[in-house]
Prior knowledge:
This protein is an all-beta fold. It contains no helices and 21 strands. The protein starts with 5 loop residues before the first strand and ends with a strand. Keywords: Secreted. It is found in: Secreted.
Amino acid sequence: MAIQPNIVQGNGGDINASGIGVAPARIYATNNSETIRSTGSDDQIYAKGGDDIIYSGHNQDVINAGDGNDFVDAGASRDFVFGGAGNDTLYGNEGNDAVVGGDDDDIIYGGDGNDGLWGDNSNGSLDGTVGADTFRFDKADGSDNVFDFAVGIDAVELTQGGTYSLTQTAAGHTKLIYGETTVLFHNALLTTDDIDFI
């Protein structure tokens, strides 16, 4: 018999679902600004609006921060993090995470592991940190900055075909222009070998 999730419905105050049992939690917050804590396994967190602070636990969690200027610490293992609208700060931390920024100006850290990072229509800052990370862009992702890109280890994926241009600067950076998207890779000299279409 499959283990049924523990349903946690927010009431506008902070949510602490760290001690509700071994079953995964499914947490529904409100449009208020809340602090949400979940230290279980395979949890799902839906934060809606407000400027939320979210901490998840171990194993594979799915976090949708919703609207607002949110902070997410995804914890250990492989997690899926969606920032939504607002100026978000998103940490994938340990594991091979997928972290998607959403609209507005986001700061995204992959953490340990081989992470996938998407600015997704934001003017964002992306830092894969440790691991072989993948940075994905479409033609309408705004102006992004990528830090800690390791040439020959990390990769760039472009999602809508077409053409792009790479310009290496005298300061040791690389500028990628793809449609209406401009990405500056700091302290990294990329070539076409680092770029793939998907």
